Amino acid sequence: MRETVGTTQPATWNGRHRPRVSEAPWRALDAARIGARRYTAVMTDDAEHGSPVSGNRDVIWPERFPRSAKYDARWMRDAAMGPNPLWLTEWLYEAMDLRPGMRVLDLGCGRAASSIFLAKEFGVRVWATDLWIGADENWTRICEAGLQHEVTPIHANARSLPYAKGFFDAIIAIDSYIYFGTDDLYLAYLAPFVAPGGQIGVVMPGFAQDIGDHLPEHLRPFWGQDCWSWHPAHWWRHHWARTGLVDVERSDNLPEAGELWQRTEEGGDEAHVVAADKGRYMGMIRLVGRTRPADPDAREISR
Question: Which CA distances in Å does 92 have to 137, 154, 180, 244?
């Protein structure tokens, strides 16, 4: 999992030290424009030098995520704070109605890789919002991508957002919502920032099936206290649907979640945990809801 807005920053993440920030992650990026706010794809180092993709299995998965596979492997690896955020964003996009020119809040954007991907691939305008990664650092990365007019970095807490109500056409959260979204009241705080009829879409680690009251023994080496926010897709559907604030359009687990975790942890300290799990419990949850018109009699939630 990744660090994000709205929580205290841990010294490690699922027992692993946080990845370093590359000093020059975008050295292979050539921001040539195609049409209105669209750019050419960034070829990976592997494609340029003819190296096999298998050496970058943690970030390159062309048969499942072809858009993400066009990006530089080193840049994706250095920008990641968990599973490849471009994979997760590409999967989320399959269930959302994003159109060029839309205003999109990328909540808990980390190092803004998902924000850059959204702007480059889909022509949306993105407000890249995070607490643990400063706006200065993300602005440097955004400028190196040539996206100064498409992506705006914001340093803010998920519980104290500096935006006008109804400002966004859509809100996304990649590998971050579990840090604050389990709060029963959080959706009531967040939903007013998106215009009525707009979508809120999140992707996050979760369980492929219920675990009951007992953590499976093979998961214990991987587990940290922050992982208790993991839930299966049906839990999240109920968590949103009961509020009446959104119509839940999608609540599912990535079918290839087992392979995603294997690729993410390949060669890492927890590779044996993923191998033992075999996709039975470690999932990746996608949740998409469409906001309903505001109830004028509802009491506003202030955080």
Answer: 25, 22, 19, 22
Tokens encoding 168: 């966004």
When the pLDDT of each residue in the chain is averaged and rounded to a whole number, the result is 83
pLDDT in tens, 108-142: 999 999 999 999 999 999 999 999 999 999 999 99
Tokens of 175: 């590998």
Closest listed residue to residue 85, CA positions, set 102, 101, 63, 107: 107
User: How many angstroms separate the Cα of 75 from the Cα of each of 69, 85, 98, 142, 145?
Assistant: 12, 12, 25, 12, 11
Decide: helix, strand or coil at residue 199: strand
Edge-first strand order for the sheet with 194-207 is 151-155, 125-130, 103-107, 168-174, 194-207, 282-291, 246-253
- Say if CB 200 and CB 249 are below 8 A apart: no
pLDDT band at 300 (very low <50, low <70, confident <90, very high): low
What does the alpha-carbon distance between residue 135 and residue 149 come to, in Å, rounded to a whole number?
A: 15
Number of alpha carbons in the 13 Å side-chain half-sphere of residue 24: 2
pTM reported for the whole predicted model: 0.82
Contact in structure between 114 and 86 (CB atoms under 8 Å): yes
Which domains does the chain carry? 26-291 (3.40.50.150)
Residues 108, 176 contacting (CB under 8 angstroms): yes
- d(CA 258, CA 275) in angstroms, rounded, equals 9
